[in-house]
Design goal:
The chain has 3 domains: 282 residues, Rossmann fold; 80 residues, Rossmann fold (3-Layer(aba) Sandwich), CATH 3.40.50; 77 residues, no CATH class. A hairpin with a 6-residue loop joins strand 4 and strand 5. The two termini are 56 Å apart. Strands 1, 2, 3, 6, 7, 8, 9, 10, 11, 12 and 13 form an 11-stranded mixed sheet that branches. Helix 5 packs across helix 11. By secondary structure, it is α/β, with parallel strands linked by helices. The chain contains 20 helices and 16 strands. The longest helix has 18 residues. Bound molecules: 2-acetamido-2-deoxy-beta-D-glucopyranose (NAG) (7 copies). One 2-acetamido-2-deoxy-beta-D-glucopyranose binds next to loops. Belongs to the peptidase S10 family. Keywords: Carboxypeptidase, Disulfide bond, Glycoprotein, Hydrolase, Protease, Secreted, Signal. This is Carboxypeptidase. It is found in: Secreted.
């Protein structure tokens, strides 16, 4: 459960604490793994660089797939909404017949233009977490699970609007993917994962031959920062060496990606500090005593790290501003909305995927599905940057995107990692827009594009579905949507000297203007506000009345208020739902009156300085 996440981070750095969490999700597994590697010794050498030199070609296992596509077609997912206008498939692809190892996939086609839209593979991270349970059912898939755990609602911002999407549960052992040789799970690592995923793809394209020549992209998030470049690289090598299927790989796009361990550790704590989650002292201690580059760990470093994690409190690190899942929030039966990501979604999905009827519809053998699996991971380079450089050299499109309020693999980590590549900038940092709002920022380096998605956490399509879809559409189309719209900055010269520091020293006393106010309170009182709800049941002492005087153009002023500009500036929309206002007018004044219910304080909103909201 997400609420354990900061304890898990404690696990990450203090080896003395025994950690055992069930029902955890991908980032927990990620950090548990990073912890475990401190006690294991993974080879530092980059085994991927050697791949290229390997002369011989060993063809992968390819089985006949005739007729299996039709068998994989899903009639209907239990509880799915009406008007489903696209095809869905699910099933296993055997990647090793001797071991009895098979990977499970879920495939959704586009409803329109599926015969021309690109083919996209999606991979979640962990390592060991399910692309179906997280990716398809909570992020970018066409459906999400309602709080009853039995029915689905439509995600209008699903990525199958613009692509045909394969969700692959990888490696074997994750979700519905399995091996009949259980010792396979002890031999799992980056290399075996990439090789199995490649074998999967070759066989999948035999099963769906109409996609063999389609433009193909690999996407994913988190620990897929390893999977995606490694699989892409494996494809490039095999495309060169083989006369079996050439996979038409055009590009990769990875969100909040684990690509460089030391950049990640530094970016992690810097993000805490710059987002007001840690104290100055703790951040300074970490900067002083922790050497994340060389990886030597001092006792002082560990104790500051522990402090940093305690200082966070119980927040959702996947989205530092999101609510956490509390038992009382579970409203079994209420239907979900794609515009509000329910923090308890994990349990709805787990319930749904463990329903016998659902498993039948997905063509899986009856089993217990869990979101993540724990592995003793066998190989894991500390940095993926050399592979990314190789991919850049091949000329494929490479995007790294980042939800900017994720604290697990934060935007700072990605930036530090990219900076290590020392790439020339081709198009400088600029905002990109959606519905006239900044959707995020983009900078194009030579060979690599970095995009942020504003207000998104670790699972970008969960927290910002519309911006996530715009981002991936732009990626698939080569960036044409991300047009340049720089606001010009005014260059004024302000006085540099600080007149405020001298205020305290002023000796003379200048009394301010004070007018008699007797009897003026009563006329200010508001009887009842225009449009005020009937059931205003709070007492007068807790009712605060604000009013604003404005002189001048009534029509303009009114249109500003009615156009909601005022509200958006003053407060968020959620708060405004509980408030109401009235505009009043006599020959000399215009009033705007707000009625609010503040249980803990009496609040004055002062329109200041003169001229504010006084159109001329
Ligand atoms: C795994 O074993 C089961 C039971 O024997 C069998 O039905 C299944 O086909 C095997 N899986 C693979 C991929 O060989
Ligand atoms: C399908 O493709 C056509 C031609 O490229 C395009 O005009 C249309 O908008 C596409 N439809 C959808 C729903 O993407
Ligand atoms: C919701 O309630 C129904 C009926 O009581 C029950 O069958 C189902 O398991 C519940 N779902 C969850 C997620 O608790
Ligand atoms: C290429 O294909 C031919 C015919 O299918 C086969 O005989 C040959 O072994 C293949 N070569 C490689 C390197 O796989
Ligand atoms: C890391 O190690 C290298 C080589 O031993 C050394 O030059 C460098 O100063 C070290 N970095 C830090 C931050 O200690
Ligand atoms: C990982 O290895 C350790 C020691 O070899 C063992 O105790 C543990 O059970 C293994 N964990 C898993 C998930 O296989
Ligand atoms: C307009 O209303 C204000 C506030 O109630 C009052 O002080 C003022 O005398 C009124 N002016 C006219 C012309 O009615």
């Amino acid at each position: 459960m997400k609420k354990f996440v900061n304890l898990v981070f404690l696990c990450l750095f203090s080896l003395s604490i025994l950690c055992n969490f069930s029902n955890a999700n991908q980032a927990i597994y990620l950090h548990r793994l990073l912890n475990s590697r401190r006690s294991h010794t993974f080879p530092l050498s980059d085994s991927w660089a050697q791949l290229q030199e390997k002369g011989e070609f060993s063809p992968v296992y390819v089985a006949p797939q005739d007729g299996l596509m039709q068998a994989d077609k899903i009639d209907k997912l239990p509880g799915q909404p009406d008007n489903v206008d696209f095809d869905q498939y699910a099933g296993y692809i055997t990647v090793d017949p001797l071991a009895g190892r098979a990977l499970f996939y879920y495939f959704v086609e586009s409803s329109a233009n599926s015969s021309t839209n690109p083919l996209v593979l999606w991979l979640n991270g962990g390592p060991g977490c399910s692309s179906f349970g997280y990716g398809a059912m909570e992020e970018l898939g066409p459906f999400r699970v309602n709080s009853d755990g039995n029915t689905l609602f439509r995600n209008n911002y699903a990525w199958n609007n613009v692509a045909n999407v394969i969700f692959l549960e990888s490696p074997a052992g994750v979700g519905f993917s399995y091996s009949n040789t259980s010792s396979d799970y002890d031999r799992t690592g980056d290399t075996s994962t990439a090789n199995d995923a490649y074998t999967f793809l070759v066989n999948w394209l035999e099963r769906f031959p109409q996609y063999k020549t389609r433009d193909f992209y690999i996407t994913g998030e988190s620990y897929a920062g390893h999977y995606v470049p490694q699989l892409a690289y494996t494809i490039l090598l095999n495309n060169k060496n083989t006369n079996q299927t050439v996979i038409n790989l055009e590009g990769i796009s990875i969100g909040n990606a684990v690509i460089d361990d030391s950049a990640m550790a530094t970016g992690f704590f810097d993000h805490f500090w710059t987002h007001a989650l840690n104290s100055d002292e703790t951040h300074k201690g970490i900067s002083t005593f922790c050497d994340f580059v060389n990886g030597t760990e001092s006792h002082k470093c560990s104790s500051f790290v522990e402090k940093a994690l305690l200082e966070l409190g119980n927040i959702d690190l996947y989205n530092i501003y999101a609510p956490i899942c509390l038992k009382t929030m579970l409203k079994n039966g209420s239907s979900g909305s794609v515009n509000y990501f329910d923090p308890c979604s994990d349990s709805y999905v787990e319930n749904y995927l463990n329903t016998a009827e659902v498993q039948r519809a997905l063509h899986v053998n009856p089993t217990t599905w869990t979101g993540c699996r724990d592995y003793n991971w066998t190989d894991m380079p500390r940095t993926i940057l050399p592979i990314i450089e190789n991919l850049m050299a091949s000329g494929m499109r490479i995007w790294l995107y980042s939800g900017d309020i994720d604290a697990v693999v934060p935007v700072t980590a990605t930036r530090y990692a990219i900076n290590r590549l020392k790439l020339p900038i081709e198009n400088a940092w600029r905002p990109w827009y959606l519905n006239n709002e900044v959707g995020g920022y983009v900078v194009e380096y030579k060979g690599l594009t970095f995009v942020t998605v504003r207000g998104a956490g670790h699972l970008v399509p969960s927290y910002q579905p519309q911006r996530g879809l715009t981002m991936i559409s732009s990626f698939l189309q080569g960036g044409i949507y991300l047009h340049r719209l720089l606001k010009s900055r005014r260059s004024h010269n302000f006085h540099v000297s600080d007149s405020w520091a001298r205020l305290q020293e002023t000796r003379e006393y200048n009394p301010v203007y004070v007018a008699p106010q007797d009897g003026l309170m009563r006329p200010d009182k508001i009887d009842k506000l225009l449009g005020q709800p009937d059931n205003v049941d709070f007492d007068q002492s807790r009712m605060f009345i604000l009013w604003i005087r404005s002189y001048g153009n009534w029509a303009l002023f009114e249109s500003m208020v009615r156009g909601k500009h005022f509200f958006e500036i003053i407060m968020d929309r959620r708060t405004m739902v509980r408030s109401t206002y009235e505009l009043r007018q006599n020959q000399s004044f215009l009033y705007l009156v707000l009625l609010l219910n503040f249980p803990v304080a009496n609040v004055i909103f002062l329109e200041s300085p003169a001229g504010v909201f006084t159109p001329v």
